[in-house]
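[step 3/7] inverse_fold.run input=structure_tokens len=584
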């Protein structure tokens, strides 16, 4: 079924990842019947049944044994006091950085190499006079098939993909937060990333989830995904957290399940289209509480509901995250409640070096306790289906308006959540650059007609991609306007080309003096016209906005209704907004 909208044929349609998964605390759940994992076991001659022993066994004592003597010798304890002292003991253990619990959690945690984080990064957010500072956390759900994840995921594919990625912006007042879902098959610029062998890639445009797969390891490449998010958004990521199948399912067990809702019943054939049959019921229609494998099925579900795309799946993931956050908020973010969750999660957790200890993770978790569920929002980055393939483009300038809103610490409904910040950050308007002279078009070569070129606008200047297309057509190239680039802050025009198109790319570069030539894994040639091309054509955009005060950041432009109207609050009805398109 490759080629369906919202799917990535290049990444393997029937190995969709999602949020993380099962197996840590509470044990790994039995895989679904009818899946690939069961087929493997059948082929190996392994039975699917289980024989439970009796309830007698070792450890029992008679009515007159030592256990009864101990019970009779000691008075009944006050349960409330035990709970209180247990909670106090947990606090002492964590605060003192000692004890078995602390060391157990610390041993669980894995962190990625700090040297893999790009050196060229967006600036850190500035704290106000009271120390209030926003925090940006990158949440990645890995569908790694390593270890027990193979049975949970229903496949044997190697490597890892990031089929769920949410950029969580916690505002400086720590009372508001918003999670931005990034479509896994959005075409974005992926920067140079570090490989397991220590070398760095050249980068280029590709599917967003390809960043996590750079290097091909079972643990994935979270640093590359972080580098990509920073390049696409211009927002500095303070922390990155990766949870795999085992971790996700174990977390749902640690909180005794999460309430979800489905508009229609889901069967085995929807979970695994390779079965080519309906199969047994997996998730019933309506409200239900899921944990372990069922929770994983819910957040990974794509087929059999809506238009079968990742857009609908992201909506269900947002609903799931909202429900989980609401439950944790209701039960309280105390160390007593957090520790079982932390133990479950950390067994399958990979974090950035800034969260590489139990006390750091718990401290971060407790810092979120004042966020009201109505003020925890989830949205999807502005997107549209591409006309040339089944993938997605981020819509500009809408996406940049969203990034600018986060940078300004404005909520999506227009509130100022900067805490008590007295002064706005200094402006970052670039100085006006001298406009290069427009080049004379080289003599048209008839052979250019066989060279196809897609032209993108790498700025916010209206009509600039069309201007570049006209220039190329004048030189007899087969050029077409492809719309806005994923990033609208290109200072220099960039020409991206596949390995077979290098000579043609170098030839057409004569039309764009000073352009940067970059190899790409995408097919053909793409020209992303930048501010230099705008200036050369008298369409420069670096002049200050009329009425703007020098040295003061200009307020972000209002967000389009396509973003605000589609936002989910964590306290919304769990049955609302859980699918996209026709089909259920």
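[step 3/7] decode complete -> sequence:
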């Amino acid at each position: 079924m490759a080629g369906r909208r919202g799917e990535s044929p290049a990444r393997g349609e029937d190995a969709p990842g999602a949020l993380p998964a099962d197996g840590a605390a509470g044990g790994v759940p039995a895989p679904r019947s009818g899946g690939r994992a069961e087929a493997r076991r059948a082929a190996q001659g392994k039975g699917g049944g289980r024989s439970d022993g009796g309830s007698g066994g070792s450890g029992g004592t008679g009515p007159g044994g030592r256990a009864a003597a101990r019970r009779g010798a000691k008075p009944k304890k006050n349960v409330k006091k035990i709970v209180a002292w247990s909670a106090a003991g947990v606090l002492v253990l964590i605060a003192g950085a000692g004890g078995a619990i602390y060391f157990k959690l610390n041993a669980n945690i894995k962190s990625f190499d700090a040297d893999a984080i790009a050196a060229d990064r967006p600036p850190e957010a500035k704290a106000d006079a009271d120390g209030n500072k926003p925090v940006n956390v990158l949440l990645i759900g890995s569908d790694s098939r390593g270890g027990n994840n193979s049975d949970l995921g229903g496949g044997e594919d190697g490597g890892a993909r990031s089929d769920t990625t949410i950029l969580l912006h916690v505002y400086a007042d720590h009372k508001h937060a918003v999670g931005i879902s990034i479509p896994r098959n959005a075409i974005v610029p992926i920067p140079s990333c570090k490989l397991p062998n220590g070398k760095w890639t050249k980068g280029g445009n590709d599917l967003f989830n390809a960043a996590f797969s750079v290097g091909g390891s079972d643990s994935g490449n979270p640093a590359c995904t972080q580098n990509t998010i920073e390049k696409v958004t211009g927002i500095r990521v303070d922390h990155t957290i990766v949870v795999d199948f085992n971790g996700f399912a174990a977390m749902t067990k640690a909180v005794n399940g999460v309430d979800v809702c489905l508009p229609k019943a889901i069967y085995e054939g929807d979970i695994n289209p390779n079965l080519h049959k309906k199969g047994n019921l997996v998730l019933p229609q309506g409200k239900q509480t899921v944990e372990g494998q069922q929770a994983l099925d819910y957040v990974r579900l794509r087929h059999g509901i809506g238009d079968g795309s990742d857009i609908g799946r992201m909506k269900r993931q947002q609903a799931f995250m909202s429900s989980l956050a609401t439950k944790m908020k209701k039960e309280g973010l105390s160390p007593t409640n957090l520790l079982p969750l932390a133990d479950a999660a950390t067994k399958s957790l990979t974090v950035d070096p800034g969260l590489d200890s139990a006390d750091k993770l718990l401290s971060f978790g407790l810092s979120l306790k004042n966020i009201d569920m109505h003020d925890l929002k989830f949205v999807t980055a502005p997107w549209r289906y591409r006309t040339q393939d089944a993938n997605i483009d981020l819509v500009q300038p809408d996406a940049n308006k969203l990034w600018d809103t986060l940078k300004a610490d404005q909520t999506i409904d227009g509130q100022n959540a900067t805490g008590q910040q007295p002064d706005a950050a200094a402006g970052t308007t670039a100085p006006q650059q001298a406009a290069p002279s427009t080049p004379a078009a080289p003599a048209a070569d008839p052979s250019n007609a066989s060279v196809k070129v897609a032209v993108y606008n790498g700025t916010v200047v209206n009509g600039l991609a069309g201007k570049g297309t006209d220039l190329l057509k004048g030189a007899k190239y087969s050029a077409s306007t492809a719309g806005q680039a994923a990033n609208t802050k290109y200072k220099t025009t960039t020409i991206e080309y596949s390995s077979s198109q290098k000579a043609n790319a170098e030839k057409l570069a004569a039309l764009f003096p000073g352009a940067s030539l970059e190899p790409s894994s995408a097919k053909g040639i793409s020209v992303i016209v930048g501010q230099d091309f705008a200036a050369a054509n008298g369409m420069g955009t670096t002049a200050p906005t009329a009425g703007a005060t020098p040295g003061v950041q200009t307020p972000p432009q209002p967000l389009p209704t396509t973003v605000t109207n589609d936002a989910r609050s964590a306290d919304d009805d769990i049955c609302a907004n859980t699918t996209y398109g026709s089909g259920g």
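[step 4/7] annotate
The chain has 18 helices and 21 strands.
The radius of gyration is 27 Å.
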